[in-house]
Amino acid sequence: MNLKQSIIVAAAALAVGACAESRHNLQPSSAEKVALTLHAAGVQVYQCRQTRDNPVQHEWGFVGPEANLYDGAGQRAGRHYGGPTWEAADGSKVMATVVGKVPAKSEDSIPWLLLAARPVSMQGTFGHVTSIQRLETVGGAAPTQSCSGQNAGETVRVPYAAQYVFFTR
Fold first, then answer.
1. pTM for this prediction
2. CA-CA distance, 10 to 2, in Å (whole number)?
3. By CB neighbour count within 10 A (0-12 exposed, 13-18 middle, 19+ buried), where does 26 fall?
4. What's the rounded Cα separation, in Å, for the pair 18 and 4?
């Protein structure tokens, strides 16, 4: 093996190790177990707006998700929307906050997340959810098109898909 091949093999090994390490950063506590896995298909909504630090500059600000949730059989099982909130077909809801984040596999995809969950009620599908993982994201990253004073207020809906894994104690 020549030097170039050795470097490529070493870089690949580091990338695989980094991916494994990254996923490790998204693990809920060992007391939690998988309760449900759902797949999301929808959009991530962004709006062109002034930056907080400099009102002359503009950026694409995240507004929220709008997605349907599907079970393994492809049946609609709920929806995901701003808050962030996940609502099951039975009306149960869970909200969450980000506690861990790693980059997705591609630059045009939103990051993978670990979220600490707060059920809105203790009933139904999401009644006892304690953590949520967002994995295997495809798409959804902020638009690459220009955002300036000329298109301030413009809203863009970027298609995305993801896997959501719900954990309970």
1. 0.85
2. 12
3. buried
4. 21
The model's pLDDT over 110-158, given as tens digits with 9 standing for 90+, comes to: 999 999 999 998 999 999 999 999 999 999 999 999 999 999 999 999 9
Give yes or no for a contact between 99 and 150, defined as CB atoms under 8 angstroms apart.
no
Match 């929808």 to its residue by tokens. 42
Q: Could you tell me the CA-to-CA distances from 2 to 9, 13, 15 in Å, in that order?
A: 11, 17, 20
Indicate the SS3 state at residue 8.
Answer: helix
**Owning domain of residue 21:** 3-168
What's the domain count of the chain? Answer: 1
- 65, 76, 84, 89 from 116: Cα distances, Å: 17, 24, 11, 21
**Radius of gyration in angstroms for the set of CA atoms belonging to the chain, rounded to a whole number:** 19
